[in-house]
Amino acid sequence: MNRSPAASATRVDPRRGRCRAGFSLIEILVALAIAGAVLGTVAGTLRRGGEAALRAGRIEEALLVAQGRLAAAGTEEPLSPGRSQGLAAERYPWEMTIESVDLPLPVAGPAAKVFRIAIVVTWREGRAERRLDLATHRLALGAR
User: FRET label pair with 63: which of 17, 20, 21, 102, CA 20 to 30 Å apart?
Assistant: First the structure.
């Protein structure tokens, strides 16, 4: 028997012999339970997406701090072996290490030197401590 959706919402009351329109209480409760489950799943997905976007933003900020410090090494600050540290944006402690590297260079004379520059940026995310490490090498001409 094929009934239309409109016909399924109409019921015959056996005591009175007439039709009554509407849904029963159990049908409404089932529909509400399904809607609640769907909304709960959607809300959880949106929350996790928001947390991931916030985490990605913090990683990007830490990366900008590290790249800025690496760019300053040898230009704003002299390239000399040692350690330096600081706090960027009141949230990202950083530590930079510069080491002299002995490599055979094709450049004639002792005036060229290679330095390894490593930087570590840390930050807190809730209870966890996050960390970003970057390292590069720089060639300094005229270095002593």
Answer: 102
**What's the pTM value of the predicted model, to 2 decimals?**
0.67
For residue 140, which of 85, 77, 58 has the smallest C-alpha distance? 77
pLDDT tens-digit readout, 34-50: 999 999 999 999 999 99
CA distance 125 to 140: 37
Listed in order, strand segments (DSSP E) in the chain are 10-13, 18-21, 82-88, 92-101, 112-125, 128-141
Domain ranges in the chain are 5-141
| CA gap 128, 133 in Å, rounded | 16
CA separation for the pair 20, 104 (Å, rounded): 95
Distance CA 67, CA 55 (A): 18
Token readout for 10 is: 């109409």
List CB contacts of 74: < 8 A, sequence separation 6 or more. Answer: 115, 117, 138, 140
Q: Is the pLDDT of residue 107 over 80?
A: no
- Looking at residue 76, the DSSP 8-state letter turns out to be T
